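USER: I would love a firmer grasp of how sequence relates to backbone shape in proteins. This is the protein in question:
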Amino acid sequence: MTVVAEALSPPDLEQRLALVACGENTRPGKTRACDSCRKKGGTLLRITSTRAADALAAAICGTGSGVKTCDPCRQKAVRMIRIYNGETE
């Protein structure tokens, strides 16, 4: 069963996705994304809204399309899509 969380506003969601891309889970206590990840926030939100995990992982990893992304970036992409869908973590 999927539990749905309260929806975030678009600016909050953009910041949340940027934080995940920046490595929130790998750095305990991290509360803000770096400047680079914050600048990607809008793009990450647009790609996340399409639920295209491969494209999102490529944007996070910086590999571009057609190049295999790393496992951590693929995991971040799946997590970001879950957050976008309002699922609890």
Q: What stands out?
A: The longest helix spans residues 71-84. The chain is about 55% helix and 0% strand.
